[in-house]
Amino acid sequence: MRFDLRHVRCFVLLAEELHFGRAAQRAHMTQPGMSRLIRDLEQDVGVPLFARTTRTVVLTEAGKAFLAESREALARLERAVTRARRTAGGEVGVLRIGYMDFAINGRLPEFLNSFSRYRPEIRLELSFTPTLQQQEALLAERIDIGFMIGPFEEAGMESYAFDDNRYVALLPITHPLSNVRVLRLADLADQPFVLGSGENWGAFRTAFFAVCHRAGFTPRIVQEASSSEGIFGLVAAGAGVSVYASCVRNLQRRGIVIRDLDDVADKLVTCAAWATPIRAPAVTVFTEYMRRVWGGT
């Protein structure tokens, strides 16, 4: 088909006015120009859309059918233009967000609720992803923003300290040390440990092992779990002790005692990370809101 939007818009105007002069005036063109466009449109469509006499212009049945579809097409186009402009302005869009355990058990849910109220037409697609896999996903552009342990120190990536947690000890409620109000990490040196597996907890293990080495010991790992729930369950069952982030206090866990570690000053920092330069306007809106309204740690 050779006709374009100009032909369709002129057709709709003529269908509304049923008068070439008035339709041409609304289209800001000459009457002969309007007549030529309608004639070309009818030739492309292959059927008469108007019945003309020297005094009247009326729609044919084919013209009535074409009018209904033309109005819908123009309305859809207007919506498309509006959506494109709002997307470019960061008002609508989709954000793919990766998160790990400490983020979702900490401040992240409250922040995401706040952002969704601020920009309800930006859809958030959330996926649980351990830190190292988040970094891979960011580099491969499978996610837009990741909430991970520590900054992502890679060229073309920006990190923002979003939240932090202290290290805390998790003990079975029946453990002899469960009655001690404040522990030292060194008190756990000879204890069997339950930790997250290297595959899913690699970033945490690296940070935790460094803390243990400074305390003068290497943890003796007797059980591993792939998830926080698995860690909690094994500790509650008496398999060993564990060390976790202080956001665990936001959860209700039976059979576990949580204790501060008085000799550990290190923090477990949750960082938001994203690629730069930013190409998706929704990422700009999200990160600017995070810095301006929510604030970091």
UniProtKB/TrEMBL annotation:
GO terms for cellular component: protein-DNA complex. One of its GO terms (molecular function) is DNA binding. InterPro entries: LysR_HTH_N (IPR000847), LysR_subst-bd (IPR005119), WH-like_DNA-bd_sf (IPR036388), WH_DNA-bd_sf (IPR036390). The keyword 4Fe-4S does not apply. Keywords: DNA-binding, Transcription, Transcription regulation. CDD domains: PBP2_LTTR_aromatics_like (cd08414). The keyword tRNA processing does not apply. Residues 3-60 form the HTH lysR-type domain. Gene3D superfamilies: Periplasmic binding protein-like II (3.40.190.10), Winged helix-like DNA-binding domain superfamily/Winged helix DNA-binding domain (1.10.10.10). Belongs to the LysR transcriptional regulatory family. This is DNA-binding transcriptional LysR family regulator.
